[in-house]
Amino acid sequence: MSLAEEKVRGLLETMVLVRRFEEKIVEVYGAQDMKSPVHLCIGQEAVAAGVCANLKPGDLQFSTHRNHGHCLARGADPAALYAEFYGRETGCCHGRGGSMHPSFPELGIPGTTAIVGGTIPLAVGAGLAFSMRGQDNLAVAFFGDGASDQGILAESVSFAVLHRLPVLFVCENNGYAVASPLSARQPDPDVSARMAGFGLPTVVEDGNNAAAVYVAAAEAAARARAGEGPTFLEFKTYRWQGHVGPECDVERGCRPAEELAAWKKRCPVALFTRALLEKGVVDEAYVKDLYEKTDQRLDKALAEARKSPFPDPADIGRGVFAETGKADS
Amino acid sequence: MPWTHIYADKEDWEGLAPEKGLRSLSYVQALNETQELLLESDPAVFVLGEGVDDPGGVFGSTLGLAGKFGKKRVLDLPIAENGMTGVALGAALAGMRPIFVHMRTDFLLMCADQIANHAAKWRYMSGGNQGAPLVIRAIIGRGWGSAAQHSQALQSMFLPVPGLRIFTPATPYDAKGLLVWAVKSKDPVLFIEHRWLYGSVGYVPEGLYTVEPGQAVVRRQGTDATVVAVSHMNIEAARAARALSARGISIEIVDPRTIAPLDMETILKSVEKTGRLVICDCACRTGGAASEIAARVAEAGPSLLRAPVARVTFPDIPTPASPVLEEAYYPGAKDIARAVAEIMP
Questions:
Q1: B244 neighbors B338 (Cβ within 8 angstroms)
Q2: A237-246, B163-172, B231-240 — which is least confidently predicted?
Q3: Separation of alpha carbons B44 and B42, rounded Å
């Protein structure tokens, strides 16, 4: 499958947006005024970009604590995210959710949870709703290899297979749950092999190759929309920063420096940029311009977020319930 | 009002219904009819749970629904409570109105993550953007040696979870009206039934109607003591009222109908009148609705009380199996009557 040029550029734009979005958090985080635990996805941008490029209006996606890339790839406004991380009223959750719970229902992101594995069955439930209503929409569950430790993954995959639900299980296997390597947590570190037993197609792809991610997700999406059931997509990738916060684990001695260096050589953004330059889809000027425009947009978003108003403390109880009767207080 | 009365024994109601020309249903019939009407009137509604389509039909409460609406809308589930609660929640987020059924409240602990961390918090942590209209029915079991893992009353464990409403209907009328309200609500509801209420009968209107949460009802007017009774304790309280009445003691029975939200206004108004308070809950003693009501009365109106507050609850002991021990475990009308008598001058 060859990708249309527009689609290809879209993938690059998304990856650059996610990369620079996260790098700017690293730059400002030391000021200690972004009081939200940030789980950065630097190094994993290709997965978000490649999967979300296959989604259409009405599709629902469910993400995790490491969600910034997934939200941006679906079209979330960086200013609404930054403002949320700064705890502002203008944030996507009006300062009630923070970095771990962004919500953009209008974009197909009903909300985000940060209990590992917790959102996987939600995608299955959304798939069940689509199936019951005869819609050709699909639902995506993003999760990491850490969630493959959870029983709820087995419960969810099994049920989706049983009812042939339109679900993409997207495992971003970055090899670590916080600082624990997969090999220390599972007797068989091959996540897909474990899942194959449930009777669904499993695909293992290079998660740092945006085109490969896109193609694998496109095939899975086509299956889902055709009523052929779920697919388990495992994308091997690597997280450059620590589990949470702007620092790198290597600096804390959590991971071998050589391992990080090797993965950095396979930077998903650089790999894709190089491939497009070689194929003549973009030129150096385009790339330079893309970075400049992205930076301008993000700098503006950050500045806006920083000067946005905080929520009114008197409104602390707003949004617990939709209906608030006399006895709800 | 026929819907405010608790009829402690079936015969009490059977004599009354035809006389007044009222339709009577049992609690389980009311639940069944409500789900049938909701399935009929709203294509987004579906019922799911382990065994909802089996020949028992969750003690009869879902009996016949699969035959009428098909097994897709009355969906049997694997025994994977947490994952399946997530599935129900995901469907709710995608615009459906699931009614998830558990045969025992004990199983709620298996899905505590999806209930407490996910469903209850969804609206708030999304900044009010998105609600989670999920209804979870769960039944408190009792008797026949059901023991420590099949007869717990765990609704109290969810009381401190913001974002959850907890309904505890005691009559067929309330079971129907509150379930309709729950399913039409935009937020999650824990709907707690009691197995021993399933056979109790009462007035149930035809068609769909709602009972608002947070509105207690005075089941019986009285002057000497207020007895707040939750769920099945209403039956016991009604029996206690008769026994006490014969001894010249008049109790006022208040059924909060929902323990979250709690209608303290009605409870305080009654305590203001009687000056005495006995709280009867189907749950262990510590940290339950009885404790919460006592605390709120202590906050809002300690001067209203002419005697210490008394609680009639399960002891802080796991439910035993032997019938002899069960008999000792569950408080009933006699215990309520004794508790009232003890705080009388």
A1: no
A2: A237-246
A3: 5
Confidence (pLDDT) at A325? 47
Is B150 designated active site?
A: yes
* Architecture of domain B217-343 in this structure: 3-Layer(aba) Sandwich (3.40)
Segment (H or E) for A154? helix A151-162
Pair of tokens at residue B30? 């009311």
ipTM of the complex: 0.96
From CA B3, how far away is CA A278, in angstroms rounded? 78
The pLDDT tens digits of the residues spanning B31-55 come to 999 999 999 999 999 999 999 999 9
pTM confidence score: 0.96
Q: B130 — contact with chain A (CB < 8 Å)?
A: yes
The structural domains of chain B, with segments of one domain joined by +, span 10-203, 217-343
Tens digits of per-residue pLDDT, A77-95? 999 999 999 999 999 999 9
Q: Which CATH superfamily is domain A5-306 in?
A: Thiamin diphosphate (ThDP)-binding fold, Pyr/PP domains (3.40.50.970)
Q: A117: nearest CA in chain B?
A: B83
Q: Which residues pair with B119 in a beta bridge?
A: none
Least Cα distance to B34 among B70, B1, B71, B61 occurs for B61
My answer on whether omega of the bond before B261 falls inside 30° of 0, hence cis, is yes
Q: Is the sign of the CA dihedral B291, B254, B237, B178 positive or negative?
A: negative
Query: Taking CB atoms and an 8 Å limit, are A155 and B78 in contact across chains?
Result: yes
Chain A interface disruption, residue of B39, B71, B126, most A CBs within 10 A: B126
CA distance to partner chain B, nearest, from residue A61 (Å): 10
pLDDT higher at B3 or B240: B240
Identify the bridge partners of residue A233 per DSSP, sorted by sequence position: A170, A203
- The CATH superfamily of B10-203 is Thiamin diphosphate (ThDP)-binding fold, Pyr/PP domains (3.40.50.970)
- Within 8 A by CB and 6+ apart from B131, the residues are A322, B122, B123, B186, B187
Residue A259's CB is within 10 A of a number of other CB atoms, namely 14
Q: Are B128 and A94 in contact (CB < 8 Å)?
A: yes
What are the residues facing A62 on neighbouring strands? Answer: A141
